[in-house]
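Bench notes, bay 3.
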Amino acid sequence: PQAIAVCERILELTEFAPTTNKPDSPEDVFYMNEQIQKIIHLLRPRYIHENIQILFSAPENYLLCAFQLEFERIIANLLLNAIEAYPKMKKENPYQFRNENCRFIFIKVRRNKHYVCVYVKDQGFGISEEDQRKIFQPLFTTKKNTENLGLGLTISNQLSQRFYKKVITVDSRVHEGSTFTFRIKNRFVKGAKDLLSEKKKLT
């Protein structure tokens, strides 16, 4: 039952979830680190099964005024894409953790004057220059023999453009891995912490 619930939540966050917000809807106030760590936890059965570790680093817990559901969906899709960038593990006990053979996904958050940037890096197959030009097209996928429908990156990029006015970018080398970058406008909202405190009191 728990595994089924996790899978249903993942699907809700990724390819098949309806978009309820509109770009002119009121934005949410939330801490970025908490949401990223929540997605990492939800995806744990998936990446542990593939002997993958996700390493998350951020210099501080950024308070965002943004669309939380869309943020979660984008992060979930980028992480699922990174997980699928590695070849599937073949072993008798897929949940047996082997440090010497572990693969890694790195999530790094940094802020500059204009944006808070989320970097999702894998060390998987990598993407050729030709495929990088098509990677965000609907139904395009470089992952053969998987259940991937080629929609996750397309939907993530569409959400990023629609709600955050920025495209997701990719930097990749074949046999070295890929880094996807998602940018959110860095802006201070007066009273945001007070709004968040009130929101938590009501939940």
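Next record in the batch:
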Amino acid sequence: LKQYYEKAWLGERINYEYECNGFTILVSLQPIYKLGYVTELIGSACDVTEHRAALVKAKARDEQYRTLVENSEDFIFRFHLDGTIASSNSKMYVTYDMDAESLKGKLLTEVIQMDEPEKWEANFEQAIVERKTQQFGIHLQHPDGSEHAYNVTLSPLFADGETEVDGVTGTVHDITDLKKREEADQSNRAKSEFLARMSHEIR
């Protein structure tokens, strides 16, 4: 602690924390001048244990969220209000063999071929204007030329005070396999119904 007091006596305002019996204490040292010289120090101490614990928990939650985003099988984006990409997760970079610099500042409709770009743009604008989450389906083309079906969720991001929309988050979930299973199930049901009718007519 001596170093903090030495700095304070030299005229520097000091803030530092220390642990005491399980508590985190924030100490402030304010030098007081008289005739151009520091003649005394005013010190104050504040228990910030709960505040520090809340910050640690918040940091842990942020780390968990980042881990989930980076390891997600979905494409996860953050967009600026003009629709340009602010950031994306690793799934996007790996699938389309791109890096962050090649995506940032571009519209998604510029870098990925989709069947209905106007639907994307209309829902993006609605998310901002209506300040509500928009969900819709769309097809995106992969680098190998294959077309995949996706469910898209676009949600407005609010600035401090939750009054102004600050951006948009997007989650794009691949439902191609689900669609194929549904189509196969429908086909099987149609065949079963046909065979049942034929059997009935023969009898």
